[in-house]
Amino acid sequence: MSLSDFFSPLSTDKFSPKAGFYTSQLGLKATFYTDKFPDLEENEYDIAIFGVQDDRASVNNEGCGLAPDYFRAQFYSLNEGAYTSKIIDLGNIKAGASISDTYVALKMVVSELIKLNIVPIIIGGGQDLTYAQYLAYESLEQKVDLVVVDSKFDLDEEDQEGLAAKSDTYLNKILLHQPNYLFNFSNIGYQTYYVNQESLKVMSKLYFDVHRLGEFADDISLTEPIVRNANMLSFDIGAIRSSDAAANANAGPNGFYGEQACRIARYAGMSDKLTSIGFYEFNPAFDTNGQTAMLLAQMVWYFVDGYYNRKKDFPLTPKSQYLIYRASLNDGTGEMLFVKSKKSDRWWMQVPYPTGISKNERFHLVPCRYDDYTTAVNGEMPDLWWRTFQKLL
Known about the structure:
The protein is built from 11 helices and 14 strands. By secondary structure, the chain is an alpha/beta fold. Helix 2 (67-75) crosses helix 9 (291-307).
């Protein structure tokens, strides 16, 4: 089956050289599927944008399936940054006969794009589509680090079976999926009054990384190492406060500011490890002044800007580009190793594999902050090191 079977083309009236874009705008820089489906194997594209027009499993937010075209109206009027972008817009994935059919289509599309070294930007649709985004990695035979920006965990009880999920329970499907290839889950921005304590206990038991909204109130850059650790990221527009993004039926008075959301998106783009991102739950029905569409367009712009400013400094080789720091623990159990990039000043922590777990690698590298290093220098073990080691067992 060809990928073209899943997509409906875009209107030639809106997306063509004659559509009225200025030469500096992304509308004249991107390539659009309007007639003949492009040959993606020619290696001409870095990023693929496409919509998923399915909101059947979005809880209390019907209408978010219309998001992609409203997003496009704002995004392609933005000016290209200081780089030469190679973006393809594949149009919209048609809603399947059932929601499960849509999941299969999204899974296949994301998987094929990643294999072609093209980063998919998914404009949904409900956040349950995160489950299909995750399934795309099954055929890639790799462990997955999933980061979700959301005010909730979407981990409550559900009564559905099979592939079907709902936007407020899809994480259950990911955690219970077999084979299990989820290495780590991180939540950014949860609000405690939306989260039951049993869910928090589950996160702690699984050594997952969950972070309250308040942790980033004074410094949004604290999200950077969390995002840098992700293979895939899912962003719920409902995580942004309603005053900045009202176009979500579940929007609340608290959440990230618009500029913070853009910073997070740029961090995601800069991550050498991240291979797919989805923006979900934008509902044009509540976007009376178009502000949320503009914000979403700017978030994607910042992601693209981050992508074209990737440092490609993951600590592998050559060693001359990195600095190694060592710290001894007070309890005498040994020393910890940290790696700092000379190119970006970003930090990683080396967590050794337990004996016999990995035949090919001696340690696992996890992005961290300078504060983790200072904690180790003071003789204490950083929580991130311990949680990571437990997941390696």
